[in-house]
Predict the 3D structure of the following.
Amino acid sequence: MPETASDTTTGYQVLARRYRSKTFGEVVGQESIAETLERAIDRGRTAHAYLFCGTRGVGKTSMARIFARAVNVSDQQAEEAAVGDAILRGEDMDVVEIDGASNNGVQDARDLIANASIRPARSPFKIYIIDEVHMLSNAAFNALLKTMEEPPSHVKFILCTTEPHKVLATIQSRCQRFDFRPISVGRIAEHLTAVLGSESIEADESVVLRVARLANGSMRDGLSILERVVAAADGRLDAALLERVLGVPPEDIVKDVAAAIGAGDPAGTLRSMAALLAEGLAPERALDGIAERFRLLLTARVCGDDPALLGTGSEESAALVKEASVFEAEQLVHMIALCDAAGGRVRVSASPRAILDAAVTRMALSERFAQAASLLAGDVAVSSSSPTKKKSLKKAVESTRPITPVRSVPSASPPVVKKNSAPVSVPVSDPGDSEEKVVATVPPESEAVEAKSLVSIGSIGSIADDRGPWAALQAAAVTPKQRVMLDDFEFDRLEGGRLRLRRRVDASPSAGWTIQKPQGLADLASAAFGRRIEIEFVTESQPMRASADNVAADVNDHPLVREAVDLFDAHVVQVRRTDQPNADGDTAASPETQD
């Protein structure tokens, strides 16, 4: 049984120490590890080194002490109870507890190795419990390697760490590793309730559950938080006392903020936010509280009324399900992401209140009904049953859908539309205008061409009309970059899925870059012609360098050369190639003859 405050001779002991586990069965949430170690002891198959990994307060050191007592205490010992109690307090001479943070040097490792050769004073084994072992230096780890691999028969090591990735792999390979899991909210709440019962303290169920959630999987943190609330209590523990002592966001005000956001009421949202900050909360703490509320609503929206999963009481879980019904799951996910992003900015901003208000107002205005997935995909499907909500959602989706401007060219023939791939076109200007007009198009999802950098051809018309393929391609070029890119080339021909272009004589220097990376031009042509188009650039053929004999033979057969030879009674002695710029700026090879 745990000691009470009046039983101790050294003064008051905090709950985390007074209710520390003393047997394998008392270690909460680590039953599988406790069962494995207990069976190994019963069968005499204990290892010489163990590595206990896990977050803070999950029972690593307690399990190490319980294991040390189990292997070192026997019925034959005259001081069985005294030895067991000393081990659990960390005061036994044969169970040495070492703080890895303050004993992390090579000399500390050497001292440990030297003392390990000394046999235990009154127990079968000398056990070294090294807490926070990841703080040891690499040199200290390396000094321990040989001893940990082949220690004396009377020595055992138990290494405890919260950061196992910092422990050398050579050390880990010499240990049996056990990973301690974070403790569930339900198990922490159950243990806290038992502690309060032992202390004869009354508490609301919601208070115990909230303390369990704040513990984040750590039993020691849960007991420490409960200790603070108990110390300030004057009778029963309630939610108001917990919020006042711990400085956590008041749940009723956080609920009002979420309700105002769900109602699409920016004014109510800002008023509730102001009331929340008036409680003395920092902006980042307020955002954390809102994000946690949305997390509960997301779980309730997706999983329904499940008190065990929500970590709440049955009445509170039912209220959460009702509150979550006005939201969509995608919307809640998006809001949690907004809280996280705003929280990061608030911590480093000179105007944290402005960022906070902007974030919650954005939630209330732009994310009221829109589903994040629908916004990204451009889908206008509406899941709400309310006609008013349907109309609002459709308007929100249309306003956030990406618009691709396309220059429309008048055509006598109707546009050619592929089956199941027609884009949606919304005229922006008067359809009766003879002037150029702009339409907003949404590329169909079934189009085989990638959406990036593509332009819909819904208003361009068929490439088979009197304008020709080059006119259709020029009509599809709507950005200055695309127009400049086309101006550098001339149309040669279109054969199936291959478009052949010829570089213009007066092309800009950027034409070379387009030839090296033609993907942008290929995407433009693919969109204009409604199918995948590959670009082929046609250049003037350049003579190949050849041997002198072959070149001389070819030159002798040339009509002009033969005429010159006959006229001057000469013969070809040497043929040279000279690169000279012609009038067009290109280079050409010119043969020379000598007598």
